[in-house]
Structure formats: C-alpha cells, structure tokens
Amino acid sequence: MVRLMIAAACFVVVVSFASADADSDPRITRALALQKAITDAKSHLDARRPLDAATVLEAEILFANGDERYLALLKETYIACLRELSQNGGNTARVDHFRRQLRILDPQLNTDDLIAAVSPAPATMPERIDAPAPAKAAPKGDPFQQMPLDRQPAAATKPKPQVAMPDGWQSFESTNFRVLYRQNREQAGKLATRAEQLRSATFERWFGPAGADWAPRCDVWLHVTATEYAAATQKPAATPGHASVGIREGKVLHRRIDLRLDSSNMHDSALPREIGYVVLADLFPDQPLPTWAHVGMTIQGESPMEISRYLRSMARLLNEKKLLAVRDLLKMPDFPEAERITAFYVGSVSLVDYLVKLKGPRAFVLYLREAPRRGYEEALDRHYGIKDAADLHDRWLKASLKGE
pTM score, two decimals? Predict the structure, then answer.
C-alpha cells in the first residue's frame, strides 16, 4: 500500500513537472498564438474586416516560420485589404505597405490588377459576337458584367468563317484551340496545352470523354494589358476574361475566349471558368441552363482557394439576412439586381457544390436535363430524394455551416 502511495505521488510530481514544462515552453506558446491568429483572422475576413485580419496576422509574422496555412491566409488578407482600400479611398501609405508585402509573398502577382478587380472575381457569361443585333445588356450595376448565352434562331445569318488575324497577331493551333497572340509564341503554346487539358477535364467531370474534336476550334485571344482588352472587347478593364459562343439549331457556330495576360488569376480562374462556359454550350446546345447552375458549374473549375472564398461567405450572408432562399434561386431566370449579385454568386456556387457532393457531377447534369420538363423543384425528389425546395434549403444550409 505504501509503495502504491509513493508511486502515485511520483506520478503526480512527474505529470506536474511535465505540465509546467509544456506551459513554459515558448515553442508551444508561440504555436498556440499562431493558431489563434489564423482563427481570428478568418473570422475577420468572413465579417468583411480584412484590415483587422491583417493586424492580427502581422502580430505573429516573426513567429510563422514558413507555416503554409499562415502565408496563404496572409496573402488572401492582403489582397482583400488592397481591394477594400481601393474601393473606400484608403490612405496611400497603407496601400503601399500591402503592395510591398504582396510582392514579397508572390513576386509574380500584379497588384494593379488586384486593385482593379472586384470581389467576387468578375466573370462573363458567353454571348454571341456575330449577331446583327446588339447582345442583351448585363443587369444595371452588375460589377461582373454577366451576359446570357445568345442562341441564334434558325433564320440567323450563316456562320462567319474563322476570324482573320489583325496585323501584328500570330496564331498557335492545337487540336481544339487556336491561340492568337502578339508577343510570345512559347507562352501561347503552353496556354494551348493547358486549355486542352482543361477542356478534357471539364467534359470528364460533367459528362464523360470529350468525344469529337471541336470544329470550329475555339479562338483564344491573348490581350497584353487591361487597356488593350477593354478596347478590343468593349468589356470593363477589370474583367479578366470572357467567352463568346454562337449557337444555331443546336449547333455551335463559333467559340471564342478573350483573356488578359496581365491578370494574376488567368491560369487558375479565368481560363478554366471560360472554358467551362464553352464546354457547357456543347453539353446543353438545345436547352439554356438556369443562370444559378451556369455560374456554379463554371466556378467549380476554378482553384480550390477561389471556390472556398465563396463557400466561406455563407455564414456572413446568413448573419446579415442576405442569403437567398433555394426556392428563389431555382426560379431566377436571370441575374438579380446589383445589390443582390454577391448573394446570388455565393448561393449559386454553394448550392451547386452541395448537390455535386451529394451524388456527383454527372448526376447533377442528369437532374438539369430533366428539370425543365418536370420543374427544377419538382425534379429534386426523383434525382436526390429531396422533397421540395424548402427541404433542400434546410439540408444545404446545415451542410454548408457544418463545413466551415
């Protein structure tokens, strides 16, 4: 009995010393402080307080020791700070500070492009470029300049031949793309290779093997600067790219993508998104997709960081009572008014992400193909075992908030 008591006393002493060592170990203290800074910064970003997030993160900058989570969040925070300051007229010294820090984190990042951009990242829906009548205008005040896919009637003019290259332009052709450029052939070749990979991956995700090669090829115009892009396309200079698709009697007449080479997110966001638009025109040639599905599906092709940026905004919109109900999303024929654009984007991306995770991308495509005949709400039960839009809203919201 005495031995047991002595042993127990020794155990308590050892544990006490171990706890004391852990409490006094500066490495553990610093690790906990860094984790808390990351958690607090995420909360500030979700509440749209990037400057507060920057303050919290920079307090631990000397102790981050190359932590990848910390550095990725710091970069995201600096970008958000630049955008907020540019929109609200922040002081020049702070803008310069964030520019310098971003150049250290990512020397290839174009901070001028970031200041011009609007969050969420601008994108454009495909439009017809060779129609005799002007395309339908984007919603007034829409910072994304989204344009609906314009489908040509049977009596439309005959498709134009492949667009001739202006003076000073050259082309690089792959199986399905013709990349038009003015400066760097090697860069054009690499982009064509990337475009082919994205085309195959996008078909595979939503449908299966790509099948027949595109005829005509998709033209990809590479504009060196935002100014050149805006002058050539009549789109806002802040837009990183857009796609144009012409369809007549279910047949694609032409495909075109315009991109800005000076856009920092061209390869990870703009290019996969615009190729997604073009591929979806092939998959749904006779049946226009609802706008919420079109937006959500194309953004699924972007980088995980970009997708998570939308998903993390769910809680904030819910707290601000701005989150759109599923029934409203399903019934929206087009983009909402400008003040609800952000909520529309976040809801569309999150809802598509939820439905895709339930049964996979191809099951979602089957739902979209049958829904116009049965109704988008009515088809939920047949394809997902979900009673109605209210039932979907509850499940979606619960899953979205749980995944934070």
Answer: 0.64
